[in-house]
Amino acid sequence: MINKVPEVTLAFWVIKIMSTTVGETGADYLAVHVGLGTAPTGGIMMALFLSALVAQMRMRRYVPWLYWLTVLLVSIVGTQITDALTDRLEVSLYVSTAGFAVALAATFAIWYAVERTLSIRTIITSRREAFYWLAILFTFALGTASGDLATEALGLGFDVGVIVFSVLIAVVALTYRLGANAVLTFWLAYILTRPLGASLGDLMSQAQTYGGLGLGTIYTSLGFLTVIVVLVAFLSIGANRSRPGILLNEEV
User: Fold this and answer.
1) Residue 215 domain-assigned?
2) pTM score, two decimals?
3) CA torsion angle for 114, 118, 120, 126 (degrees, to 10)?
4) Is 246 contained in some domain?
5) Which helix (DSSP H) or strand (DSSP E) does residue 124 occupy?
6) Which residues of the chain have pLDDT under 50?
7) 215: part of which helix (H) or strand (E)?
C-alpha cells in the first residue's frame, strides 16, 4: 500500500491540535451536559472509533477525511480512558501519567524491534499501521493524563498550561532545527499537542469562575470542528501538497 499517513505540514499540526481540543470538549459535553456519563460515552466512542479504524486500515492509501475522523475519535477515546481511570477508579494522575508513558515506550520498543523503524513515512503495511494507531492511542491517553496533572493536580491552570505546553513544543521545534533526530522530535511534538489542545479547549469552554473564558463546550466544539472540516476539505483537494513539512523531514 501507499503510505497512509499525511504529509506533516502546518495544516497537519493545526488539525491535530484542533482534534485534541474537540476530543476534550466533546467528551465532556457528552458525558456531563448530555448526561450519558463517562462509561456510556466511552463505550459509544470506542465503538465508533473501532469502526473508523477498521475502515481506515482497509484502505490502500491515505484518505484525508477518514484518517482525520479516526484521529478525532481516538482523541475522544483517549480522553475517556484517562477520565475513567481518574473519576471512576480514582487512579492518581501521577500513576496514570507514568503508566501511559510506560505503555507508549513499550509500544515504541516493540514496534522498533519488529520493524526496525518508527518512521511515519513507512506506514505501508497493516502491521506497521497497527503499531502506529496503538501508539497514537497511547499518546492521546498520556497527553490527557499529563495535561490534567499539570493544569489541575499541579495547579497551573488552563491559561498557564497553554503557555507551558506551547513553550515545550517550541523547544522541541528548536532542537529539531538544530539537528535533533527527526523521528524523536516528531513524536515528542505529537505527544505535547495533546495537553496543549486539552488546555486550550478547557480554557475556552470552562466557566470564568474556573479560570476559563466561558464559551461553553458546544460553541468551542462546533468552532473547532468547523476549522477541522475546512482544513480537511482543503487537504482532500490536494491544495497543500507542496507545502514544506514542519518538525519533520524525509527521514521521519
Assistant:
1) yes
2) 0.86
3) 10
4) no
5) none
6) 239-240, 242-250
7) none
Chain centroid, CA 21 distance in Å:
9
Rounded to whole angstroms, how far apart are CA atoms 24 and 39? 15
Q: What pLDDT shows up at residue 245?
A: 47
Specify the pLDDT at position 118.
92
Other residues' Cβ atoms within 10 Å of the Cβ of residue 6: 20
Checking 8-12 for CB contacts under 8 A at 24+ apart, the result is 8/120, 8/186, 8/245, 8/246, 8/247, 8/248, 8/252, 9/240, 9/243, 9/244, 9/245, 9/246, 10/243, 10/246, 11/231, 11/234, 11/235, 11/240, 11/243, 12/246
The pLDDT value recorded for residue 250 is: 46
Residue 87's SS3 state is helix
Which sign, positive or negative, has the C-alpha torsion 38, 145, 129, 25?
Answer: positive
Cβ contacts of 56-59, under 8 Å, gap ≥ 24: 56/4, 56/133, 57/126, 57/129, 57/130, 57/133, 59/1, 59/4
Tell me, yes or no, whether 243 lies in a domain: no
Within a domain: 249: no
What's the domain range around 116? 10-236
* Tens-digit pLDDT profile for residues 124-171: 899 999 999 999 999 988 888 888 888 877 888 888 888 999 999 999
Amino acid (one-letter) located at 221: S
As for how many domains the chain has, the answer is 1
